[in-house]
Automatic annotation (TrEMBL):
InterPro entries: Dihydropteroate_synth-like_sf (IPR011005), IspG_bac-typ (IPR004588), IspG_TIM (IPR058578). It comes from Bacillus safensis. Keywords: 4Fe-4S, Iron, Iron-sulfur, Metal-binding. Its cofactor is [4Fe-4S] cluster. The lineage of its organism: Bacteria, Bacillati, Bacillota, Bacilli, Bacillales. Gene3D superfamilies: Dihydropteroate synthase-like. GO terms for molecular function: 4 iron, 4 sulfur cluster binding; 4-hydroxy-3-methylbut-2-en-1-yl diphosphate synthase activity (ferredoxin). This is IspG TIM-barrel domain-containing protein. Residues 106-128 are annotated as: Disordered. The keyword Iron-sulfur applies. Pfam families: GcpE.
Length: 143
């Protein structure tokens, strides 16, 4: 018995070398359960997830110690790294500088619009791809 699945139409988004959403295939994602500042344990868990077919992994960034670990983690893994940010936009800026492929922000708990705009501006500068520079510029201009 074959069942047809209807997908909601979404906008495609680049995460590292992958494109998610739009008409692209579904991507397998997971979140690390370790404390992000424990680089060795986090990398070991991500490598296990990768062997099981995970294509994108998320880590929490609750504090400065976690933000400082992002660069070390990124160097040791082969799949895109998404960093979850809550409450402090400065952690988002650190994650971007450390090489995060994507940051995930809950705008309801980040604070002022100006802070979110700073994150967008920083991410735009990091991208050398003209497509993304243009997208961030348009998004920021229309905000």
């Amino acid at each position: 018995m074959s069942e047809v699945t209807h997908r909601t139409k979404t906008r495609p988004v680049k995460v590292g070398p992958l494109t998610i959403g739009g008409n692209n295939e579904v991507v397998i994602q997971s979140m690390a359960t370790t404390k992000t500042h424990d680089v060795e344990a986090t990398v070991a868990e991500i490598k296990r997830l990768e062997r099981q077919g995970c294509q994108i992994v998320r880590v929490a960034c609750p504090d400065e110690r976690a933000a400082n670990a992002i660069a070390d983690i990124k160097k040791q893994i082969n799949i895109p790294l998404v960093v979850d940010i809550h409450f402090d936009y400065k952690l988002a800026l650190k994650a971007i500088e450390a090489g995060a492929d994507k940051i995930r922000i809950n705008p309801g708990n980040i604070g002022r619009r100006k802070s979110r705009s700073g994150c967008q501006s920083s991410k735009r500068k990091r991208h050398s791809n003209p497509y993304w520079r243009k997208r961030w510029f348009i998004r920021e201009k229309n905000s």
